[in-house]
Amino acid sequence: MIDEVMGTLVDRWYVTLFGIAFVFLASRHIGWKRTGIYTVAALVVGIISENGAVRWGIPYTRYSFNEELRGNELYAGNVPLMVSLSYTFMSYFAFAAARLVVGGPYRTRSSMPVLEYLTAVMLGVWAIWLVDPVSRLGAHFFLGELFQYDGPGFWFGIPIGSQLGFTLTVGILVGILTWLMRDEKDEPVQRLSTNPNLGALLSYFGQIIFMAVTAFVVARLNSDPEVVKVADALAGSAIIIGLPAVLMTAVHWRTLTLAHRSAAASVGGKPPSSSRPAPASTSEHASAPSQSTE
Fold first, then answer.
1. pLDDT band for position 35 (cuts 50, 70, 90)
2. Contact 270, 106 (CB under 8 A)
3. Which one of 30, 43, 102, 245 has the lowest number of neighbouring Cβ atoms within 10 Å?
4. d(CA 115, CA 119)
5. How far apart are CA 48 and CA 82, in angstroms?
6. Does the structure show a pLDDT above 50 at 5?
7. Quick check: is 10 in a domain?
8. Burial 122-153 (b: 16+ CB within 10 A, else e)
9. pTM
């Protein structure tokens, strides 16, 4: 048992690091109680869905894990525990990052919860579009051979059914987080560095960069032309998918920043408590001289 625990925590050090980041960020953002509730829910969803796919092909289509991993790390049914553990941080990073992407650097969240939800699901699925196919190359780097799908797939061997299934599970987990944080208010933030969602956004990009760099290194060090072709394409896909998203977010944030500065200037240089009441505040200042004249 000790060897299996060490195999899960040490051999899968990248999962452990992202898990520590999740606990640290989530406990500060949503509190320890909600973090605990969500973690249990994420583990349950992860264990059920992963074992469902291995046994019956639901919801990710049928695939199997390397049986040689048994005895080296902890298992939950027919699935390595570290796979289900990754559900906790992947969906949380997407959830909190989406609130920052949509709401901008000067708000804790936006006034558009539906857009926040859809953006979070999209971010979660985007991440798996890189994580899953790079993981399939595990035999060529430190991950080791992990899993194999039974059938062909449109995205570097990953079936479309797998992506649809992950969209479903991400939607469930983001929905749980949205419900747990249903009372979170739209509060002003002085600067990006103090935004409570910044750590999640950086951690989200950390996953993407980690997998993209891994693919890039595999392409540089491997002698198999087919592996090199796939790894290079995966590293390039991270740029193709990520760069436009970053640029669009930068434009969106620039617009919000200009609006923030304009609103701050209209109330004497102090950031308003909310971006929406700003026009009413301006009208009150405009009516002040007439009251004093009377």
1. very high
2. no
3. 245
4. 6
5. 14
6. yes
7. yes
8. bbbbbbbbbbbbbbbbbebbebeebbebeeeb
9. 0.86
Decide if 27 is inside a domain: yes
Is residue 291, in this structure, part of any structural domain at all? no
Q: Tell me how many domains the chain contains.
A: 1
Position 88 pLDDT exceeds 70:
yes
- Which residue reads 């990006």 in tokens? 192
Could you give the CA distance from residue 167 to residue 102 in angstroms, rounded to a whole number?
20
Residue 280 lies in a domain: no
Domain that holds residue 226: 2-274
Residue 232 near residue 219 (C-beta atoms within 8 A): yes
Quote the pLDDT of residue 104.
Answer: 94
Q: Which amino acid is residue 32, in one-letter code? A: W
